[in-house]
Design brief:
heterodimer, A: 417 residues, alpha/beta, Urease, subunit C, domain 1, TIM Barrel, 2 domains, nine-stranded mixed beta sheet, seven-stranded mixed beta sheet, 27% helix, B: 445 residues, eight-stranded mixed beta sheet, six-stranded mixed beta sheet, 31% helix
């Protein structure tokens, strides 16, 4: 009996010998962090104009040099990989994979704990399965960085983190162990079975109460006298980090009026808030812009129903035009497909008002800035992590293939997807 | 006063409905200069499509087609024209079939539950879909009768129906196996295992055979006829291959079970989703079953769809299986139906076969291949005008025509709202008025 992968590989190999010719020698090379030279007919560095016939030199997991082939000499000891198009490794600004598994059975759905509505102390690192198959799936399309963790579905569901899409244990993959606190306002924040919160107003009231409690807790803990400090409370500590701006509050919120409520809350407590989903954000762009709040927009292909019934495929373009910082995401899927692929979501945004560069930015450098990791990833510049995605054409075209993915200078995927 | 207005409005609706029943203009319309993809032949550069009275009258290169002197000529240069898309499996219209009382309900018709004013129909037109098989769900072994629709402009379900020469409303029968019809606590009438699922279906089909034989033995003698049974009556249509079975099935073993039942009872079968079809492609080809694939962006979400592959279409097509696609809307978005073909091409299917799968293959599955699915003289004037390559992400459906009537126009702000979304896209009732006005306008052309 062949395994699934062998079976697919054998079927595809039979039908697509040319596409697969490359992959035969590559698995052996996959775990070697060698010196690499990636030469692309077109290189989108996202740190300046695109380069025709460009070279990216990689040394010890970092980008050593980027420039046109005419000016960048490839040392003889470097392994050269050729591609039609080279981009920075893609960044999915919000996902739940690794916590939410592809089987969609209770044992692999760890993105939401329902015993109570407010649990900011839940850490994503304690639930991440780095061998989850969906990680490998999205990596096959060029995704190298994921902002993932606790999902929408309760008022405060827990923490998020940032990882590279490396298969293995979480420690190897980690970029930021605690990135944000995930909140939901609107229908997704409501509790069931008569428990609080049962209304939108109650959601905000409960959040205000928690934040006020955290202010008082912090005052006590800061007290000079040790005997006046209370016992440590993990939950309240997490809120203190939100109050201090160490952890932004990532608020999944769709309706315009609920977005306004979140902005009001952010102003009251001077919070760092990032809007997530934000289906009706285009109705309140002035207010979002004035508040200086960035938006991780719902997947472009999100189904228009319920709270998202008025979503628009042009929201990314509208917000970008209004001068609001945006990034795109794969989001959370409860059924089939179990995840979206952020490349395809950006592609559709590119066909609905975003320029090619803007769309690519929304899943590379803009996403990196929004997540605060642009010192490491998001563009091809000397000193940054050597995360690259290779394509055999316009990355956004459905019929283009991702021909390789490189993370920290290692070729992690060289099959054709 | 109010009631007079209501009556006037009702009369207006009636008039509109009457107009939309007799589609098409007396005067020919010629679309010129487009890249025409007729499906049944090679792509035509600088092509001409001529329609009249809801039918296609000519298709070809500009030099080879005579444009009637009185024809209205529409310049479509720089654009692409292809047949309207055929979606072989959708849930637009918000209908539902069988209830929780039994796992097998052949008497239930989705016809009796579709809301044609639902926004999902507008979105389907925006995606270039002109013919659609609307199905009840898959949480039953047999959830009811499906319905084939043309996405005409219309006010009631009757305006959308497709009928055969005898006036019979066309549709299929929805069956399902695998996990969806199973109930973990199988204390009621629903099955708890796969073998039980097959046994329950066989039991009903055997009853239908008996019913059919009794009718046959009665030779028209009313005193010997069995009492009329709506469920068995519908199943007799299945046995006699007058009603095709649309069989929801994912896993390779479930696919073979469906084929086994089709062989035993002789029904015509279209396999739906067929997620693991690529594993048993030769068996499907040998059984002469056809396959309607739902292309989704990632594996999983349910245990049976863990082995999703974009290569499914390519592998089934190469094995000789009649292969088409579906949206399974709301699982995938009707507006983005062309992605199914494009992602299959990404995985190795040829462009020609992928576009055939979106159109004529679907038409064949619905037994409508003589009316829709290609651009050729004599067929219904169901076609779409695209801004470019149908497989490109940057391409938009600009206009959709059903039987010569333009049912979607991206340049119209109301239509555009459904194509891209936006404020008000969630509540369609107001904008339905616009559609009524358009029906009148189109009918007057």
């Amino acid at each position: 009996m062949m395994s699934f992968h062998e079976h697919v590989a054998s079927c595809v190999r039979r039908c697509l010998p040319c596409l697969f010719a490359l992959s035969i020698f590559t698995l052996a090379a996959a775990n070697v962090s060698a010196q690499l030279a990636v030469r692309g007919e077109t290189v989108y560095t996202m740190a300046g104009p695109m380069i025709r016939d460009g070279v990216v030199l990689v040394r010890d997991g970092k980008i050593e040099r980027v420039g046109p082939a005419s000016s960048v000499q490839i040392p003889a000891s470097y392994r050269t990989i050729n591609a039609r198009v080279v981009t920075p490794g893609l960044i999915d600004a919000h996902s739940v994979i690794g916590l939410a598994g592809y089987l969609n059975q209770p044992h692999d759905q760890m993105q939401l704990e329902r015993s109570t509505s407010i649990q900011p102390e839940l850490r994503a690192v304690d639930a991440y399965n780095g061998r989850e198959r969906l990680i490998e799936w999205v990596r096959g399309f060029g995704v190298t960085t994921l902002h993932t963790g606790h999902g929408p579905g309760s008022l405060i569901s827990g923490q998020t983190m940032i990882v590279k899409t490396i298969t293995g244990e979480v420690e190897q993959a980690l970029v930021v162990p605690a990135a944000m606190i995930a909140a939901s306002v609107g229908d997704a924040g409501l509790a069931t079975g008569g428990r609080a919160p049962g209304t939108y107003a109650k959601e905000i009231a409960m959040l205000r109460a928690e934040l006020i409690k955290a202010q008082e807790y912090d005052r006590k803990q800061q007290s000079a006298k040790e005997d006046q400090r209370g016992a440590r409370e993990l939950r309240t500590e997490a809120f203190v980090r939100v109050l201090k701006g160490e952890l932004p509050l990532l608020v999944t919120v769709q309706r315009a009026h609920n977005i306004i409520s979140v902005l009001r809350l952010a102003k009251e407590f001077n919070l760092r808030v990032i809007l997530d989903g934000a289906a009706e954000a285009y109705m309140v762009t002035d207010q979002i812009k004035a508040a200086g709040v960035p938006v991780i927009i719902h997947p472009t292909m999100t189904r228009a129903a319920g709270e998202t019934e008025n979503l628009s495929m042009e929201t990314a373009a509208t917000l970008r035009k209004a001068g609001i910082a945006i990034a795109l995401q794969s989001g959370f899927e409860a059924y089939v497909p179990k995840t979206r692929v952020v490349l395809f979501e950006a592609a559709l945004a590119a066909s609905n008002g975003l320029s090619f560069d803007q769309a690519l930015s929304s899943i590379t450098i803009d996403a990196a800035r929004l997540l605060g990791i642009n010192n490491r990833v998001g563009s091809l510049e000397a000193g940054k992590d050597a995360d690259l995605a290779l394509y055999d054409g316009d990355p956004f075209e459905y019929t283009t293939h991702c021909t390789g993915t490189i993370i920290n200078g290692r070729v992690v995927s060289e099959e054709t997807h | 006063m109010k009631s007079i207005l209501v009556q006037a409005f009702a009369l207006f609706l009636l008039l509109c409905a009457t107009f939309s029943q007799s589609p098409g203009q007396e005067r020919a319309r010629a679309f010129t200069g487009a890249t025409v993809i007729p499906i049944n032949g090679p792509v035509i550069q600088d092509g001409v499509l001529i329609i009249r009275r809801g039918k296609i009258t000519a298709v070809g290169a500009r030099a080879s087609v005579q444009i009637p002197a009185d024809a209205e000529v529409i310049d479509a240069s720089g654009k692409v024209i292809m047949p309207g898309l055929v979606d072989t499996h959708s849930h637009i219209g918000g209908g539902s079939g069988g209830d929780n009382s039994a796992p097998i309900q052949p008497d239930v018709r989705i016809l009796d539950s579709i809301n044609v004013r639902d926004n999902s129909l507008k979105r389907a037109r925006a995606g270039g879909i002109t013919t659609v098989n609307v199905m009840p769900g898959s949480s039953h072994l047999l959830s009811g009768q499906t319905l084939y629709l043309k996405l005409r402009l219309g006010q009631t379900i009757d305006d959308f129906l497709i009928r055969d020469a005898e006036g019979r409303i066309l549709g299929g029968m929805k069956m399902a196996n695998g996990t969806n019809p199973l109930r973990a606590e199988a204390t009621g009438p629903f099955p708890g295992t796969r073998a039980k699922s097959a046994a329950l279906l066989r039991e009903q089909l055997v009853k239908a055979q008996d019913y059919r034989d009794k009718i046959s033995r009665a030779k028209g003698d009313q005193t010997k006829m069995p009492a009329r049974d709506l469920a068995l009556e519908a199943l007799v249509e299945v046995l006699e291959r007058r009603r095709a079975v649309h069989f929801h099935t994912h896993r390779h073993d479930d696919i073979l079970t469906a084929l086994r039942l089709a062989k035993e009872f002789g029904f015509r079968i279209i396999l739906h989703h067929v997620t693991e079809g690529w594993k048993v492609a030769n068996e499907i080809a040998l059984a002469r079953a056809s396959a309607s694939i739902t292309v989704v962006d990632a594996p999983g979400g349910k245990l049976e769809s863990v082995d999703v592959s974009f290569g499914n279409g390519m592998m089934l097509d190469r094995a000789g299986v009649l292969t088409g696609f579906n949206t399974d809307d709301y699982i995938t978005d009707s507006r983005l139906f062309l992605r199914a073909a494009a992602l299959s091409v990404r995985a190795g299917m040829s462009r020609e076969r992928a576009l055939f799968a979106m159109t004529q293959a679907g038409a064949q599955m619905l037994d409508l291949q003589d009316r829709v699915g290609t651009l050729e003289a004599g067929k219904d004037a169901d076609f779409i005008i695209l801004s470019g390559d149908p497989l490109s992400v940057y391409t938009h459906v600009l206009e959709t025509f059903v039987e010569g009537v333009r049912v979607f126009d991206r340049a119209n702000p109301n239509d555009r709202l459904y194509a891209v979304g936006g404020s008000g896209a969630g509540s369609g009732q107001m904008l339905h008025i616009d559609e009524i006005e358009r029906s009148e306008e189109e009918a007057g052309q």
